[in-house]
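Subgroup meeting minutes
Present: P.N., E.W., G.H.
Scribe: E.W.

1. P.N. recapped why we're keeping a running log of single-chain structure predictions: easier to compare across weeks, and new members can see raw inputs and outputs side by side.
2. G.H. added today's entry (699 aa).
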Amino acid sequence: MFSKILIANRGEIACRVAATAKRLGVSTVAVYSDADREAKHVAVCDEAIYLGGSAPKDSYLKGDAIIAIAKQTGAQAIHPGYGFLSENADFAQACQDAGLVFIGPSADAIRAMGGKSESKRLMESAGVPLIPGYHGDNQDAQFLQQQADSIGYPVLIKASAGGGGKGMRIVEKSSDFIDLLDSCRREAITSFGNDQVLVEKYALKPRHIEIQVFGDTHGNYVHLFERDCSVQRRHQKVLEEAPAPGVDTAMREAMGTAAIEAARAVDYVGAGTVEFIVEQREDSMNFYFMEMNTRLQVEHPVSEAITGVDLVEWQLLVAAGQPLPKTQDDLAINGHAIEARICAENPDNNFLPATGTLFTYQKPEHSTFNITDVRIDDGVREGDVISPFYDSMIAKLIVHAPTREQALARLDRALAQTRIVGLPNNVAFLRYILNTDSFSKANLDTALIEREQDKLFDQHPLGLSTLVVTAIAQQLASEATTQGSDPFSKSTGFRAYSDYTRSFSLVYDEQAYSARISNWHNASCADSKKGGDSLSNFTLVIGKEIANTQDDSNINVAAQTETIYEGQISYDSNDAHNHTLWLDGARISAQSWVNNERVYVFTDSGRDEITLIDIMAHVGEDTAAVGSLKSPMPGQVVAFKVAVGDTVKKGEPLAVIEAMKIEHTITAPTDGVVAELLFAAGDLVADGDELLRIDSESA
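Output recorded in log:
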């Protein structure tokens, strides 16, 4: 076994590799960029060496610098993790040439299986079923369009050197092909440095099922069964589970055998994943080779959970020249495991990646990088910043149980106990998926999210009254921490002859509301044991503000308020974050955190947010400029689709921004005429930067 390894990666996977290495007594060397100077993976490794700038090309893609650091620190091997250089054949060869062990397959195997076109031809010669498509070297756009027309739409354009769901476009009709091909190529160049593509028939009702394989230097091969990764957005996986529902023993053996033969064809060594598209028919399922990922996969923990195998340990053992610890007959499936990828993104805004600080990051009881009922693998801590330079994944939540039904319940409970505040995230969205009929009943395919969109997007699981009462409780409990213990010093102070009354202004789902609480003289009684206010049987009135209107004389009429809720409400706050509410006869336990006036509310039923406005903080502020268009995230301008003087319609594409290796199209918020472009293609923009101005009056 090695005495020291360098981990040529960052974040969760770097921490994952370091955890197993530490257990085996292997020292670790971390490398880091400017953005990662204070990152978790830097702290958990035995040594850490500065690598370069924040952009991947200036740090984690600098293979020569990484090899030099490995030799400088006395590392014997390099673990590439996933992403970055993990499937770079030239880097694998450079490690070997430098006398270092690349913890992965040979450069030849990476070349053979890393290029989608070449791997398709290899599998075709080996008799592995392939989906119809063009995998050749002719990359002329018109020729590729002709191939797509011949295959029949819909087709899928895929970056030949791609992975991770990047560099992929679904084309529904011929007239869209060239534009989507150009977009796919730009993303492929950004992510992989190679814009070669292939074109395939897009299978209807497809499932994505993959086989985990392992080979050693002694000619031994095993598979560790299958994973279903069908639930995807933007062609990137959201939920993964093992074993795959509905796969019987015969199909499992056939897919496993095919995967091993694929690995054997290139003398594969180490961990790899053979991915299949499974076409579902009424009475059967047919599988077709899609690609082989010549590295450890993000979703490897579900395979670990059902087999009891530490796959990173196997990687180290095999790379050190040892044989596989188990044969195929030694491996068996135990129970069911599901992994949820927790990401910094906004599902309700087309999964727009988010950046910012993890203001609150609380997790359920769990293990870290160890097989158990609830496991969380992450590379961040509360207070860390999610930057625009890398992937948006915050953590992986993995559960294991005897049955799929029990695993579903365990995952839903663990997600309900996960609290993230400070930036948009998909925790609530993941819970919505689990509770759809499609997922709960294992009616799986890669279009599940689109099929169930009415139950997944723009959901508000908590009632307005719950949000309002929690926001008020949060505010009063926070105030109580700065007030004296006697009732006369409190903002809800004792009144002998009148009600305590207080008004609040709130915004929820872009609608303005007012709230008023009132209570007779005991409103200020404090419960010293709990450290907060106990307001029992107070009256809550919620009003909905009606927009200004004009009368027959075109004179503005003042905004009206419509009472939409009135009732007797109680709450009890242990502190500023933990509250017990009594609303309409129901007892509700709620937690809340405030960030920039927005109150984030969590209950067992779900989470939502409401803005509690501090009126005094906004005195004198100007309204936002009309006719401006701001970048919704930090990134780089890829292109403007319009020029100054162009007339545009609402929803028309205006600009393309690249962030976190994904392209995002910015559309016009209104009809108008382009008055000014404030950046040029290639410029870096910050979150909130104005990109261009539209004159709506000239439309």
